[in-house]
Amino acid sequence: MSAVLRLSAACREPLWQQLRLTKVENIQLNREEERTKEVAPKKSTKAKATDADSRQKALDSALAMIEKDFGKGAVMRLGDDNRPPIKAISSGNTAIDVALGVGGFPRGRIVEIYGPESSGKTTVALHAIASAQRDGGIAAFIDAEHALDPEYARKLGVDTDALLVSQPDTGEQALEIADMLVRSGAIDIIVIDSVAALTPKAEIEGDMGDSHVGLQARLMSQALRKMTGALYNSGTTAIFINQLREKIGVMFGSPETTTGGKALKFYASVRCDVRRIQTLKDGQDAIGNRTKLKVVKNKVSPPFKIAEFDIMYGEGISRESSIIDLAVDNGIVKKSGSWFTYEGEQLGQGKEKVRLNLKENQDLANEIETKILKKLGVGEYANAEDDLSDEPIDMVPNVDFDDES
Asked: Does domain 88-204+214-247+255-314 correspond to CATH entry 3.40.50.300?
């Protein structure tokens, strides 16, 4: 009965008084909520700060234990300034070094060079060996194809007396020898020529026509798993030369594929596709090939760069020819008609004469090459300031073409 009386009394209050009371109550509730929000963050901020400090201490402790057990540098932050830069072994050719982006083939990584027959794959690898030896390095060549020509290697600049060569009987033996050499820590570069010739022992001991599905792919996968870490720790560059095959029944896209399964494609930091694009002739006689190298995969620099260079028969890759091409493209050497000019001095008329001039004057060739690498920021000049002028220079050599005498 009392509840009914209170309800009737409330109903007798004017409507405006009821609305006013409701508004006052809402204002009070909002003020209480704001005071609660102002007080709450202070406690949560302190809690978060304490939590962050404890997590940082735990991380520092874990890093100290890892460094103690596994050595300094086992774990590092990607943004650390003291992180070692990527070192490289020069390919011996300026155009290839520029295409690779780091001044050559990266140390401690796997490199795959593939292409059609007689395209220059082994020549590129032998030039890299010669470059490593000139810098005082030790090189090894696993000749699985049993086709290495020592005389040709010497013409390319390889010190064959110091070169370690193995001609293994089986694929397992070849990869085991390569792994032992890498783990010794004394090898700078090792070349395996070629993946297609790494024949499993079971296939050699079997009969002709026997099916050995996936044997070579499993062999390569196991070997690369073992070698990857050892290559990085020793700073050895491993170059695998590979051949091309064609897949049957491919309607769209390229039917070409490489041998040895897919493991090498994944483990390789750099993959280079080498193709012969033109035959160089002196009159009717073929004197060399114009070759194109495309970097189809690159984990150490932007990929898909292309290098074009000349491979002269009996001489190898023409370093001077690549220097001329890159110097003209970058405005270091000026060309007007058939004349080439460097810093106001004539280098010669016609590319072949300039090439022979640079071949005889190696100091000048080295000077021009250094300017190319500085301008493009390649290798050791990656962070160097470009001190070359962009001002236009008179491209016409000091030759009086109107002289009638």
From this structure: yes
d(CA 343, CA 332): 8
Q: Which CATH class is domain 319-382?
A: alpha beta
Known binding-site residues equal 115-122
Binding-site members for ATP are 115-122
What HEC string does 18-51 produce?
HHHHHHHHHHHHHHHHHHHHHHHHHHHHHHHHHH
Characterise 136 by phi-psi region: left (phi > 0), alpha (psi -120 to 50), beta (else): left
- Stretch(es) of the chain classified as CATH 3.40.50.300: 88-204+214-247+255-314
Alpha-carbon gap, residue 315 to 324, rounded angstroms: 17
SS3 (DSSP) at 346 = strand
The tokens describing 381, both together, are: 């000049």
- Residues 305 and 299: their CA atoms lie apart, in Å, by 13
Residue-by-residue pLDDT tens, the chain, 405 positions = 444 445 455 555 555 455 555 555 666 666 666 666 555 555 466 666 778 888 999 999 999 999 888 877 778 787 765 556 789 999 999 999 999 999 999 999 999 999 999 999 999 999 999 999 999 999 999 999 999 999 999 999 999 999 999 999 999 999 999 999 999 999 999 999 999 999 999 999 988 888 888 999 999 999 999 999 999 999 999 999 999 999 998 888 889 999 999 999 999 999 999 999 999 998 899 999 999 999 999 999 999 999 999 999 999 999 999 999 999 999 999 999 999 999 888 999 998 899 999 999 999 999 999 999 999 888 777 765 545 444 444 434 444 434 443
* Residue 150 structure tokens: 């020592």
pTM of the model: 0.78
The rounded Cα 201 to chain-centroid distance in angstroms is 33
Cα of first residue to Cα of last residue in the chain, in angstroms, is 137
